[in-house]
C-alpha cells in the first residue's frame, strides 16, 4: 500500500507527530519554527499530501486543495474556528475538515477573565508605571480601577467558552447577561444585542467569524454601549471594527479594551498600541501547555481516523447554502444552540 503523506504546517510536538508517524504516514513538517509557511512554501508542501494539519494563519482554499491533488482526504485545523478554510470548496472535493473544540474552552475563558481583570484594575498599566521607576507613594485615589463585584458582564455568544467565562465571572460577583433572543440558559438572561450593549459594564465576544459577524461591533454598537464600558475580544479580530474602537476610546466613550485577536492580525491598529487603557496579548487564548498538547493530539487523531477509513472525532459540517442574509441575532442564537464555535 502506498504510504500516505501528511503535511504539518508547524511543529506540533512529539506526541502528535509521533501518532501520525505510528499510523504509517510519511510526515512532512514545515521546518521553520519561528514563522508560518509562506503561500509558495505552503503550496509546495501540500503537493501530494493525503492530509494537512493546519493553523489559523494558513489559507486553505480551492487553489491549495487542487495543488495538493485529488488524493487529499482531510484538512485538520488545530483550532476551533475554521474561518481560514473554504469549507464549501473542501466539500465539493470530498475533503473532510475537522477542528479542535472543547479542549481549549477553559484556557480561553481563563484569558478572557484575565483581560477583564487587567483592564478594570489597570494591572498592566500599573506594572509599566513601576518598571519606568516612577516616583510614587500610596494614596486613596492612586491607580483607581473598577471593582468587578456587582458589575454586569454581557456575553456575545453564549456557547462553550461564553458559558465557561460566565462561571468564572460569577466567582467575582458579576451579574451575567447574554446577547440573543432565545430562552435563558443557566439562568442567564438573554437580550437583543443592542439592548444588552446598553446595560453591560463589560462586553466579551465569543462568536465565530462569519460573513454575518464580521464587524459585529462597529460604530452603532459602540454608540449603544453603556458609558465607560470595557470591551474584551478573545474570539476573532474582525468581529470588531478596530477603527471604530479607536474612535470610541479616543472620545472617552469606553473605559478600555482587552484584545487577544486583531482585525489585520498580526498587524495591530496603531491607535491601540499607544493607549494605557488597552491590554493587548498576541493570540494566546489557548496557549496553556496542556491545552495546546490536547489540541495537537486531537488534530492528529482526526487526521489518522480519516486516513484509515474511520470517523474523525470532531468533523466540521459543511454550511448549507443561504438564500437570504442571516441577521446577527440569528447567528448568535444558532451559535448558542449548537456548538459554541470560537
UniProtKB/TrEMBL annotation:
CDD domains membership: GDH (cd05301)
Superkingdom in the source lineage: Bacteria
Keywords: Oxidoreductase
Domain D-isomer specific 2-hydroxyacid dehydrogenase catalytic: 6-316
InterPro entries listed in its UniProt record: D-isomer_2-hydroxyacid_DH, D-isomer_2_OHA_DH_cat_dom, D-isomer_DH_CS, D-isomer_DH_NAD-bd, NAD(P)-bd_dom_sf
Domain D-isomer specific 2-hydroxyacid dehydrogenase NAD-binding residues, every copy: 113-285
Family designation: Belongs to the D-isomer specific 2-hydroxyacid dehydrogenase family.
Name of the protein: D-glycerate dehydrogenase
Organism of derivation: Brevibacterium permense
